[in-house]
Amino acid sequence: MDELPPHAKDLLSLARMADEPPTAARERVRHAVAVALTAGAATAVGTAASHAAASGVTSMGAKAGWLASTAVKLVITGGVLAALGTTALIMQPTRHAAREAAPATRAAVQSPSRTATQTARASVPSQPVAAVPVVPVFEPSQAVPPLAPVQPLLHAVAGHAHRAPAVATAVTAVAPEPSLHAEMTILYEASAALDRGQLAQARSLLASHRTQYANGQLSEERRGLEVLTACMDHRPAANSSARVYLRDKPDALLASRIALACKLESAP
Amino acid sequence: MNSSVGKLPFDAAPTEVLMAPRCSFDDLYRQHFSFVWRNLRRLGVPPALVEDAAQDTFIVVHRRLADLHSDASAKAWLFGIAVRVAHDYRRTKKRKPTVNLETEIALSPESSPFDKTATAEAGRVLQRFLGTLDDDKRAVFVLAEMEELSAPEMSEALGVGVNTIYSRLRGARERFVDFLAREGGSDG
Hey, what domains does chain B have and what are their CATH numbers? Predict the structure, then answer.
C-alpha cells in the first residue's frame, strides 16, 4: 500500500493535534532538565566537599574526591555498597534525584498557593532558624484550565475531519527563550571550580551569574551553589545561610550536601 | 533498566557539549520539544510519564550534542534517542506517575468542545492502533505518517535500509486501514 485512503489521513490529521504538549509542560521540562544537568555536575562536587569538610581533609586529589563522593552518596541513598566503583552508578542516583525534584517543581506550579513557608512546615529541621521574608517557591507561568471529560466519538471524528483545516489550531504559542544555555554554562563552570577546590573561581563565576541573571531560570540553583561555596570556605555566615536555604528549599537537590558541608545535624 | 539506554554516555563532560559550535541545546529544545514529546507518546510512553521521558530524552540530548553532525537530520537523531528512552519507559511502567496529563490538552483556547472531543478521540484511536504494532512498524508509521519524514531520514533515524523502511511502512499502512475498518472509523 503506497498511500493511505482519505478517511485514514483525516483521522491522522486530527490525531496530530492530540499529541501536542501543553505549553506549561514545555517550561516544566526545560526547568527540570536544567536542574538535573546542573545538579548532576554539582552533586559530586557537593558530596566530595562535604566529606572533606566532615573528615577534616583540606586537600584531596580528584581520585580521592570521587571515591569520597561515591561513598557518601551511597550512604545517603541507602548504602548500596555493591554499587561502588562505577561512574554509571553515581550518575544514576543523580538522575533519579533530578526526577524526584521535577515533580516538586510541577507540584509547586500546579499549586501556586504553596509557599516556602508551607513547604518548610512540612519538613523543616527542628533547630530554630532566622526569620527571613517568605517568597513563593515557583510562580506558575500560566494557569491550566481543567478540561471536561471527553466521550468516545469516532464517527464524529470521521465527519469532523472534512469540515475544517483543524491542524492549524494545534499550533501552540512559544514564548521567546532566555539563554538557559548560557546560565547552565556558568553554573557548570562554577561547579567544576568547586570540584577542583578553586573556591575563589567558583565565587567569581557565581557572582557573574548573579550579575547577568539576577532573576534567571537557575537563580535558585545558583543560590544553592553559593551557600555550598560559603560552607566549603568556612565563611562566618555560612551556617545561618545554609539553615535559611534548607528551610526555603528542603527538597532542593543540593540540600543534603549543603547540610553535610555546613555540618548541620538535620538534612532534609 | 534498558541496557541500550544505559550505554549512552551520561557521564560525558558537559562543557564539551556546551561548547559544541554547530548546534545549540537551546535551539534544539525550542524547535523540537514538541516533536520529542508527541513521539514519546506515540512510541508507547504512558501519558503520565511523558513528561519524565521528555526530561530524560533532553538530558541525553545534552550529553550527546557533540554527536549531532551538521549534515544530519536533527529530527532523525532526536527520534533515535526518543526510541531508546521510550523503550526504557515501556519496560518500567511501574514508575510512579508524576503528573496527570489527562487534564492538560494543548488545544487552543478557542477550540470548541466538539473540536476537543473529536481530537481526543482521534488521539485515542491512534494510540490503540500503535499499540497493536511491533516496535519496528510503529516507529516507521509514526515517522512517515505523523511526522512526514523522508525515507532517507527514517533510514538514518532507525538505522535500517530504505527498502526495509518501505516494507515496514507498507505493512503498517495495511494494518491501519484494517484497524479502522474494525473500529468503525471508515464509514464516515
Answer: 1-95 (1.10.1740.10), 109-183 (1.10.10.10)
